[in-house]
Design goal:
Number of helices: 10
CATH topology: Glutamine Phosphoribosylpyrophosphate, subunit 1, domain 1
Structural class: alpha+beta
CATH architecture: 4-Layer Sandwich
Low-confidence stretches: none
Number of domains: 1
Number of strands: 13
Helix content: 25-40%
Strand order of the largest sheet: 4-3-2-6-5-1-11-12
Radius of gyration: 19 Å
Mean pLDDT: 92
CATH superfamily: (Glycosyl)asparaginase
Order of helices and strands: EHHEEHEHHHHEEEEHHHEEEEE
């Protein structure tokens, strides 16, 4: 019998203990994942998730998230969600209360209000400075009028990113991936992000796409991805990793094969986080050493585990 456990990406190191505590008390994998992801979403210093998430080209933070239940492979997701910090909780409500898998934009925000999830101010001093830089780069110095927004985006598309854009750090983006298995052997995976920094308004990465950004199946394992989401979408990377496990590959073998597939696109990189039905864990990166964090119900603190670096 596998001990209940939880794993997460680097930015979840200090948060997965919240999920481990829930698992110790006999709670579900989904409760554990949601609690840990919520904590990351509340961290304004993260810069790529929830509060303080990096804005899009118009200076607006739009969040994507998804959650999947390995028992029945049901899922819920949101994309382009504004004014709500706990995107993962909205995604869970989509799973539990609707016949749908994905809600987007104003509809997702309206749904969040309907199920009692409060409005949040996602801005921080850092994101307000970014928004001011966006306005300074627009032809009129404002980005409130719809026609002005359209002119600004047209300028960006026609003239390239511009000096003002290049001054803003391209490192300000990220995703949190957290996965767990509970005492019943049930699996859950959750993903939350503000997506690619300075993206076009309405851009959606892999995080809310089941099969691309995450996938789990109690019979075989669980996987989640981060990085250039367009690549995971094209290759259905998370679903493929679980499929490789189903067809007999080891964790390391499944990760290597999935990331080699991404290398073949020659268009950017992704990373992944994986575990199998026996409770073995693995992570993979295309750019350097891969690290993830593990806790089970007997752990005193997060354990750093090394994954695999998959080179071209």
């Amino acid at each position: 019998m596998v001990k209940p456990f939880i794993i997460g990406t680097r930015n979840a190191k200090d948060m997965i203990h919240l999920g481990a505590e829930i698992l110790r008390e006999g709670g579900s994998a989904m409760d554990a994942v949601e609690a840990a992801v919520n904590a990351v979403e509340d961290n304004p210093l993260d810069g790529g998730v929830g509060v303080g998430g990096t804005p899009n080209l118009l200076g607006v933070t739009q969040l994507d998230a998804s959650i999947m239940d390995g028992r029945n492979r049901r899922s819920g997701a949101v994309a382009g969600l504004e004014n709500v910090a706990h995107a993962i909780s909205v995604a869970r409500k989509v799973l539990e209360l609707t016949p749908h898998d994905l809600l987007v934009g104003p509809g997702a925000e309206m749904f969040a209000r309907a199920v009692g999830i409060e409005k949040s101010d996602l801005s921080t001093e850092r994101t307000r400075k970014i928004a001011a830089a966006m306005r300074a780069g627009s032809p009129e110095g404002i980005l409130e009028d719809e026609k002005e927004k359209e002119r600004f985006l047209r300028m960006w598309l026609e003239e390239g990113r511009g000096e003002w854009y290049e001054k803003i750090s391209k490192a300000d983006w990220g995703t949190v991936n957290i996965m767990a298995m509970d005492a019943n052997g049930d699996m859950c995976v959750g993903v939350s992000t503000s997506g690619l920094g300075y993206k076009l308004p309405g851009r959606v990465g892999d995080s809310p796409y089941i099969g691309a950004g995450n996938y789990c199946d109690n019979r075989f394992g669980s996987a989640a991805c981060t990085g250039k989401g367009e690549l995971a979408i094209r290759l259905s990377s998370a679903r493929m990793i679980v499929s490789y496990l189903e067809n007999g590959l080891t964790l390391r073998g499944a990760v290597r094969k999935a990331l080699k597939d991404v290398h073949s696109l020659q268009d950017g990189t992704i990373s992944c986080l994986v575990f199998d039905g026996e409770g073995n864990t693995m992570s993979g990166s295309m750019t350097g050493e891969s690290i993830h964090y593990y806790m089970d119900v007997d752990s005193e603190g997060p354990e750093e585990r090394k994954g695999v670096w998959v080179k071209p």
